[in-house]
Amino acid sequence: MTATLIQSPDLVILRNISWQTYQFLVKDFEQQPAMRLTYDRGLLEIRMPLDPHETYRKLLGRLVEALSEELEIEIRSLGSRTCDREDLGRGLEPDQCYYIQNEQAVWDKEQIDLSKDPPPDLAIEVDITSSSINRLDIYTDLGVPEVWRYDGQNLIMYHLENQQYQNCSRSIAFPLLTSSEIERFLNLKKTTKENALIRLFREWVRENLATNE
Questions:
Q1: Is 134 buried (19+), middle (13-18) or exposed (0-12) by CB count in 10 A?
Q2: Are the beta carbons of 125 and 135 closer than 8 angstroms?
Q3: How many CA atoms lie within 13 A of 191 on its CB side?
């Protein structure tokens, strides 16, 4: 195992890492939930997210969870659970991930096995510090239908179509949501406290549901 590159204080790259070593590190880092591992066929990236990353990661998760409550639909939220498959030689940890359309298939499973079970329906990526590995390429292999990617200013929604991600303006899992609306609420973070922001979001959802009835 050889460290070949340190790009910044929060990022380390290791090459020639076996699948078994990657799995050992995943288990070792279970007690350090802030650590993020991305594995791509022998290349391992270890990231230590900074506060802005964690702030928006959590806020995006709260928006999704508040929306599911207002819509009265069930979800299974798995946070940053490791999504990996040995047959692909690839794995990563989303900033947040959710089962929504496929919630019924996994809601009562103690441990999900992505070699047998469907992948999460939605993965959220906060990419304020760019990854050196193409994480969208890994999500493609895993078959995740929808990915949201936020860079601190812009939110892009990707939908998986014919084994390629397409940039779309509206969510598959939550058709009520557009990328511009999510950006609007994320931008409120600069002037609005967190719980107040969630209350404003819930009010917006209720107004839109009433309008569409």
A1: exposed
A2: yes
A3: 5
CB atoms under 10 Å from CB of 5, counted, come to 11
Mean pLDDT of the region 176-190: 96
pTM for this one? 0.92
| CATH number, domain 50-212 | 3.90.1570
Beta bridge partners of 11: 8, 47
Task: Give the integer Cα–Cα distance in Å for 158 and 140.
Answer: 11
Q: What distance in Å separates the CA atoms of residue 177 and residue 209, rounded to the nearest whole number?
A: 12
Structural domain boundaries in the chain: 50-212
Does the CA dihedral 187-45-134-94 come out positive or negative?
Answer: negative
In angstroms, the CA 38 to CA 116 distance is: 21
